[in-house]
Structure formats: structure tokens, C-alpha cells
Amino acid sequence: MPQITHILFDCDNTLVLSEDLAFEACAEVANQVLQAHDIPDRYTGPQLITDFVGMNFRGMLKALSEKFNLTISPEDEEAYVKQEEDQVIATLSAKAQPCVNVDPELESLAKEKKYKLAVVSSSAKRRVVACLQKVGQDKFFPDEVVFSAATSLEKPTSKPDPAIYLHACEKLDTEPGMCVAVEDSASGTKSAVKAGIPTIGYVGSYHGEEMQEKMGKALLEHGAKNIMVDWTEFRNKLAEIENGARL
């Protein structure tokens, strides 16, 4: 088995506590879509998280269209995506915070220079960069190692499609088996695993032990190699994968 050379991080609720904030802003636009199509249902931010965590807004629109049998024109889709992106970025730029204990680990990894680090997200790159800048993590992830399924690909997509991970590996000039991904959602875990990347499931951003345990089981079912509750566990979880790769 190859040596691990790259660590690929999801952003939302893996590096940055952004999902609660983002989905509150996102719900406003999603409800506008439903209202425009005379659908009486309405979403709150937490309800959107339950149904669509790990998806970008384009993927969410597709899922809403399928659920409510909507027809959204390409022009309207682009307008909704841009509106949602603007609202979410404004909220995150004001309020986003780093995930608990992630910054010391990033500092340590950057100092060691043993691994190359990158961000692989479903979210629009402009949103990801805004998050990283707000919490000061942009110093670890320059623009050229931030990859977005919404904006980095010729054809926009969303996790669980593995396309963005395969694209990132190509641009980083590495192979999936030489990477480890860190993901907090089912869709993100599926994306990395489908791409052939060993994945650490992170559940520290979920509220309460019961939810963390539930999500941990789900991520393992979707192919995660192990589960991390706190970033202080990262080195041990990474070592488990590296030791397995050497067997």
C-alpha cells in the first residue's frame, strides 16, 4: 500500500462551524423557491440540515425538485444559487468560528510539513474561502489547494458524487490511496470513499452524545475507516489508517 502524503479536509463543520449558520440563511432562499411554486411546506435551518447536510445548494435544489415535483428553469436555478451564496457568505463572514481544537492540529501539521494539506468541499469556493479567512485558516490553505464541487469543476456537482475528490487528486498530482479525507457527513464520506480515499469520520460538530454516536455509526456504514469525536484524536486516527496501509 502507498504511503499517505496528503490530507484532504471537508470545510463545513469539519474545519469551520458553519452549517448551523449557513442553513439558517439557506432556509430563507429554499422557502422562497417553495413559495414561488405554491408549495405550502417551509423549512427551518435545522430541518434542512437533517435532510440535506453535506449537499451544496445546487444539489439541494435538485433534491427539492424531486421531492416536490418542481420544474426550475436553468436561469432561475442560477439566480437562486447566487442569492443563497451571497446570503450565506454574509452570515459566515460575520459569525463563523473554527471547530473545537482544530487550529492547534493544523498548526502542528503545517509546522511538520510531512503532509500536504487541501480543502475539498461541496460548497462554492467563494463561501469556503470566506469561512477560512474569517477563522484565520486561510494561512494553511492557499487558493490553489481549495477545491469546490460547486465551482472548481467544469460541470458543477455535489457530494456524494466523487468527482471533486478525483479532481483534487489530479490537481494535487497524487493518487486517492495516498490521501486521507476527513468528513463529517454521509454525503461527504460517500464521495471520498467512492473516490478510493481512506476516510476519517468526524462527529464533533454534532450536538450531544446521542447524535454523535448515531452519526458515527452512519459514517462507518458509508465506509469511513474510523470515527473522531474531537480533533485531539486526529493523530491516533490517522495512525490507524497509516498502519493499516502498511500491513
Keywords:
single chain; 247 residues; alpha/beta; Rossmann fold; DNA polymerase, domain 1; six-stranded parallel sheet; two-stranded antiparallel sheet; 51% helix; globular; magnesium; phosphatase activity; Similar to Phosphorylated carbohydrates phosphatase TM_1254 acc. no. Q9X0Y1; Beta-PGM-like
Oligomer: single chain
Order of helices and strands: EEHHHHEHEHEHEHEHEH
**Any idea what the radius of gyration is?**
17 Å
CATH superfamily of the largest domain: HAD superfamily/HAD-like
Cα shape: globular
Runs in which pLDDT lies below 50 for 5 or more consecutive residues are none
Tell me the number of helical segments per DSSP (H or I, 4 or more residues long): 10
Tell me which CATH architecture of the largest domain applies here.
Answer: 3-Layer(aba) Sandwich
Helix percent reads 40-55%
- Biggest pleated sheet: 6 strands, parallel
Question: What is the SS-derived class?
Answer: alpha/beta
Instruction: State the name of the first-level CATH class of the largest domain.
Output: Alpha Beta
The overall pLDDT, averaged over residues, is 94
The fraction of residues in strands falls at 5-15%
Q: Total number of β-strand segments?
A: 8
The total domain count is 2
Could you please say which CATH topology of the largest domain applies here? Rossmann fold
Q: How far is the N terminus from the C terminus? A: 8 Å
Main β-sheet, spatial strand arrangement: 5-4-1-6-7-8
Pfam families: Hydrolase (PF00702)
Keywords: Carbohydrate metabolism, Magnesium, Metal-binding
GO molecular function, one term: metal ion binding
Protein name: Similar to Phosphorylated carbohydrates phosphatase TM_1254 acc. no. Q9X0Y1
